[in-house]
Amino acid sequence: MPASASTALLTDMYELTMLDAALHHGTEGRRAVFEVFGRRFPATRRFGVVAGTGRILEALERFEFSSDQIDWLHDQRIVSDEALDYLRGFRFSGSIDGYAEGECYFSGSPLLTVESTFAECTLLETLLLSILNHDCAVASAASRMTIAAHGRPCVDMGARRAHERSAVSAARAAVIGGFGGTSDLEAAKRYGIHPIGTAAHAFTLLHSSEREAFDAQIALLGTGTTLLVDTYDVTEGVRNAVEAARAAGGELGCVRIDSGDLVAQAFRVRGQLDAMGATTTKITVTNDLDEYAIAALGAAPIDSYGVGTRLVTGSGVPTAALVYKMVACEGPDGRTRGVAKKSESKSTVAGRKTAGRVFDADGYASEELLVAGGTPEEGLAELKRQGARPLQVPLVRAGQIDAAAWSPEALQTAQERHLRSRNELPYQAWRLSEGEAAIPTRYAALS
Amino acid sequence: MPASASTALLTDMYELTMLDAALHHGTEGRRAVFEVFGRRFPATRRFGVVAGTGRILEALERFEFSSDQIDWLHDQRIVSDEALDYLRGFRFSGSIDGYAEGECYFSGSPLLTVESTFAECTLLETLLLSILNHDCAVASAASRMTIAAHGRPCVDMGARRAHERSAVSAARAAVIGGFGGTSDLEAAKRYGIHPIGTAAHAFTLLHSSEREAFDAQIALLGTGTTLLVDTYDVTEGVRNAVEAARAAGGELGCVRIDSGDLVAQAFRVRGQLDAMGATTTKITVTNDLDEYAIAALGAAPIDSYGVGTRLVTGSGVPTAALVYKMVACEGPDGRTRGVAKKSESKSTVAGRKTAGRVFDADGYASEELLVAGGTPEEGLAELKRQGARPLQVPLVRAGQIDAAAWSPEALQTAQERHLRSRNELPYQAWRLSEGEAAIPTRYAALS
Fold it and tell me: Which UniProt keywords apply (chains A, B) (predicted)?
């Protein structure tokens, strides 16, 4: 394994210091349960979308310390030799359960439940949070955009406005939120996402005339391609585009507008296309769209949306603000009990949660039910008693990773799961305006 | 080179389609000049900070298409066989000039100038923008935070709130903006940044009592460590912390507060520490800080700041919104001339820019001067004539990358350069409030 492929140092230093202190004190082996959850949503999020679970399993597969990394930890004196011995052979050997990718989540929902020794649980904290905080933020924004698009296709074009590697993950998260394609080739290759893209303004500027540029593009890509018509003058551009396609013996597939007042432009361009008889030629728009802009374009004759900046930056919410907290641990007496932090404004609910969704008589979700304490079996029995649909699935068992959870097929399944889960939510979930979470969270304690 | 180490597919599909169409049409070899610049700042940015140049050079070194990638492009029919032949042996052979890392930039500043064939310039677009848009956004936010901190150290603790790989780059960008350390081990290792971190709330919860947890941490890390005092009750926590250190024969190094009203807590904790005689024990705070919170804490007895979410998400501006535009290209007659896009609200200034900073009589920067058109030599002569300090440095020459620009030493140099560059700006640059850019940009055209 090349050093760079290891995910083990994508970790805050204090995870290793805590491990070291626990080893030193003999407490590292105590059984513990940690949960990943969010305390509350910002007002613009009525629900969250779980994304990143598949990437976590892939990253966990590569969570091993290379000799190069061990040497560096030693040279920097980050941890003691005892800790280095522990890390040298480290493989996570515990269990992880979690919400399946695509599932909607709410305040307190345990997106992941990690159970192992204190040391093992601690080492994973930063990596799990980094992945989920990014991917859930993007998937949640994507879902709002696909709601606003009302079935018109949305595609990701945000690579240039995000870190080059997070862009790859953002494309994947966007698919979970309902997007249909990406401009990012690495994402397309790695995750089997439909790749999209034709040409930029520079291609038109390269040629002596717009028409020459359009001819060149059509010669290669055929008349079904998408021509960018706003480099100079849109009306002229549309005429050139349609004529170039007809000169090549076909009707143009699509025109793209990337600037100006998109509503007005779309009506004008549609009118012009129709007047030219190019009634099958579609219109796609791409200028700084977000869910609000997409909603405002709902009445305009537009066929699809290319979304960039606002998608990959989470449309105002660039991180999901999920935290990773210990909710139960073994005491010196060998008994495991719930634990909770009491600090002002950051308190946590003790005990492992078994999570379910409760539905009303019309079949709409009405509550996120979190049964705190007890064994998972007792929790499931309580969910059943209360008629709730269980939400957690096994992801890792005794260190064995469910590889199927990060296949390309799993990504499609996650998109379908999200649409189903979203469709179960009450009407207020679909509103773009600020407000409360679509459903409340209720805690039930097992005695 | 392992497939994953290649940066060649961190690219929008349309870059390859344009290359393909240009090859097909025989225009791919035309000489072109592209510039990276920002059109305008959001109101909360008085200046931008250049960061990411070093990472670009590193990424460029690995911008090669592996056979695996070529096979995928072929299987997906993304481009023609002719284009695949071109890509198979691709190495960037042109020149890149740019602002040195750490330099402040303004509206229109050409952060990078790429000169080569149209095909080569096009292929780099997405990667250059991804890196700069992320890194400049974080460095610019970091700089505002270090301004607000007035010399008190700021350290990065944001890894968990960012994509796991962008967190590594964010730590690097934060150093350029004046930060002094990072919790992210991969960043510390890769870029030689000072690693920081001790323990989280879970470590306290693991033990039978807070005091036992503190004893365990001090036993390993010594009394100079930082103890987190707000798991249960802060007053109790501070007493436990000081007593634990004294029981181990020393005075405690630092306490960390991570919740509640930090101003009030800092005064209370400082008073308590002083009353206990622990006058050398420092206070660090870490709860959702941004430049405004840091400024508000300026009068409180705090010794350092740990910044997370708001740093790695660019404190409200998660992307620098830089664009990459062709400003000159060779025509069919072999002559190179300036080109510009005329679309509404997205127009560009034609011609290669030579950039300089003009200073007033007091030695403060007064203008960003961009000389458009002409050769670099002519541009430099004009800058000299107008008394401006030239801002561009050579980064790549005939494909040869200046490796010194991405060494760990270069990162320290960039931090020092930034502080110098920021100190040259007029007073309004230092204001956190909304407003105009600290200095205006003036274009001068060479005939």
Answer: Glycosyltransferase, Ligase, Phosphoprotein, Pyridine nucleotide biosynthesis, Transferase
The answer to whether the Cβ–Cβ distance between B169 and A163 falls below 8 Å is yes
For residue B416, give the CATH number of its domain.
3.20.140.10
Closest-approach residue (CA) in chain B for A65: B186
Could you tell me if A164 lies within 8 Å of chain B, comparing CB atoms?
yes
pLDDT at residue B1 is higher than 70: no
**CA–CA dist B193, A294 (Å, integer):** 42
* Cβ-defined contact of A126 to B159 (cutoff 8 Å): yes
User: What's the total number of domains in chain B?
Assistant: 2
Domain span holding position A304: 151-311
ipTM: 0.96
Together in a domain, B218 and B304: yes
Name the closest residue on chain B to residue A74, using Cα atoms.
B189
In a shared domain, residues A174 and A265: yes
Same domain, B79 and B200: no
At B253 the three-state DSSP class reads: coil
Q: Please state, rounded to an integer, the average pLDDT across all residues of chain B.
A: 95
- Please give the average per-residue pLDDT across A238-262, as a whole number: 96
The confidence score (pLDDT) of residue A3 equals 43
Residues B176 and B287 in one domain: yes
Percent of chain A exceeding pLDDT 70 equals: 98
Which of B34, B57, B125, B163 has the highest number of chain A CBs within 10 A, making it the mutation to test binding with A? Answer: B163
Lookup: tokens for A206: 């390269």
pLDDT at B218 over 80: yes
Same domain, B125 and B210: no
User: Does B46 have pLDDT greater than 50?
Assistant: yes
B91 — contact with chain A (CB < 8 Å)?
no
Mean pLDDT of B194-208: 92
B59 and B111 in a single domain? The answer is: yes
Task: State mean pLDDT over A101-111.
Answer: 98
Kindly report the average pLDDT of chain A as a whole number: 95
Torsion sign over Cα B22, B25, B28, B34: negative
* Cβ–Cβ < 8 Å for A225, A218: yes
In terms of CA atoms, which chain B residue is nearest residue A130? B160
Q: What is the CATH number of the domain that holds A163?
A: 3.20.20.70
Listed by number, the residues of chain B in 209-238 with a beta carbon closer than 8 Å to a beta carbon of chain A are 216-217, 219-221, 230-234
Compute how many other C-beta atoms are within 10 angstroms of the C-beta atom of residue A29: 14
Burial status of residue A201 (CB atoms within 10 A of its CB: 0-12, 13-18, 19 or more)? buried
Task: Find the angle CA(B313)-CA(B314)-CA(B318) to the nearest 5 degrees.
Answer: 75
pLDDT of B2 > 80? The answer is: no
